[in-house]
Amino acid sequence: MSGLLGKKLGMTSVFDERGSSISVTVIEAGPCPITGIRTKERDGYEALQLGFGESPERIITKPMKGHFAKAGVKPPRVLGEFDGFEIGSYKLGDLISVDKIFSVGDEVSVSGTSKGKGFQGVVKRHHFGGGAVTHGQSDRTRAPGSVGSSSYPSRTFKGLRMAGRMGGKRSTVKNLKVVRLIPDSNLILVEGSVPGPTNGFLEICHKK
Description:
Helix content: 10-25%
Strand order of the largest sheet: 1-2-11-10-7-12
């Protein structure tokens, strides 16, 4: 899929042509320089490697510095590969902007790292209903209940929903509609919410 890398700026609302309010996420998408070109002859597949943002020099290794110098671009903060481009039309160092890839009305998939919530109980993590609040109990309202299946089989099965680390994982939201493009500011407005916190990095791809 063709696409771009970007950064989540936050959410707001806009009005459509009928006057209805639509909740949208504002994403700064590109311009993304081409830092690498994958070919079938050398790599076994065709894709463009794109970069986004600026990375501090101190965290760039020497091999990567040479890689970016070959492309003639400053070290980007994040990298991503997209296989929906006609690679013959591009060369290293070219900038791909948001208006060259997307149009109003397109359906896109947005991927990112979800917000990390830390260690959470089953009510928040798995939406358990909790125990009763009457009949003398005082400390089981948000408890998970039995996890050992009583006397038989008297063990905890793999995959049982329990308390644990929540969030901080790669997540994708599909079929989001492009509501508006602002090419001068490299902004794309998509309907609905996307994964991750404000200023989190995202991949915006065309729907397959």
